[in-house]
Amino acid sequence: MVQIEVRPHLPQQSSYGPIGILDETDRLQLAVTWGPVGVEAFLAQLFPPAVSCFYDAMDVPQARRECLDFAAMLEQFGVHVICLRDELAMLLSVHNHPRRLNLIDLLCGKGRSIAQRFDRSLPSNFACVVADSVALDMHRYGEESALALNYHLFLAAGIPLGNLLYTRDPMNVLLGMRFMGVMPMPIKRQEVELSEQVFQQGLQLAPPVGMLWGETFEGGDGYTHNGWVHVGVGARTTIGATRHIYQTFRPELERHGLQFAVVQDLDVSERSNGDRMRYMHLDTFSSPVGKQQILVFEAEAERRTVSRLHTNRQGTTVIEPTHRTFLGHLEGLGEEIIGVPDDEQQEFSCNLLALDDQTLFVPLSRNATTNNRLEAAGKTIVPVNLEACTLGYGAAHCMTGQLRRQQSEVGGLRCQSSSRNT
Known about the structure:
L-arginine/glycine Amidinotransferase, Chain A; five-stranded mixed beta sheet; 422 residues
């Protein structure tokens, strides 16, 4: 039996205020999550892992519950959460799409075709999961909107956009600007267009800063902490994109006395696909947890080199090596390093979400060593238990598109504003 979900009331008009993040551990106020992941994630897993970006079979009904529970938990802690999937369902055209039974037949037919193409076996409950997922969406959004949503997330896209639940990838807010992601992986490239449809048309946020042609950037590769903007360069983000980010908000850096660091994997092309996925973003092996505290998988931090971007007297952007590893750089900043064991890094213990500098949403309660070390450092641990959601190479941090943290307003940061009025 399909369990019916209660959809929270979404006001047609709301004031979200400015967006901006001055430090990753300031109090989180406004964020987006994907919401109730659906058939798009189920069908994406029919592709090989190198295409789908899922490293193990995700239980989609369980992941759906986890996504909803995670958003509800953030709300309980005072964060204003917007579910992108809900907003997208309200925006998409409801005309000229297949009817319910036709859509389910098309989805199942496409799924069988993909499985045959890659010589993969379909799960025995394949058709039931597809039908149940569509039914849940119909109860949540109404029949027309649900059909339009499922059509756009797979049939119109040509490939199921199952990675949209990691809402940080398509964009990132650094200081007072929102930067648009450009994805190197084909399955993820269309995420940006759909996300921007929500951000600009639905939430009426100002347009983001785009990337230069040929450069790539994913949101998990950047955060601001302890007076520095850190951007990772490796499997997903290029040095050219990093230089562009620096040049775009250099006046804000100077106004706030912040510095800009590149955390680079110089040997990324020689690493295995598994390692490129395991350390794909800066936030998969490090995460700020306090004003001068950071959670780090030290072995990867020792591999990464750090360079400082600055502008010389001639107005040229200079990439200046510090001759330090990322771990040495953090130690030089006076950060308290909280280490993560190898096996728990693989279970995304670094990919936590800080509510503020005291309270942390940790992905899995079973990462006992990491969680105990955080508690010993004075942190309040809130287990989210994203057992299914972590199977797509992400967890709480990747699943949260952060838009505003409190210090951004208190500190007088010049933030992008939303034009939505009450």
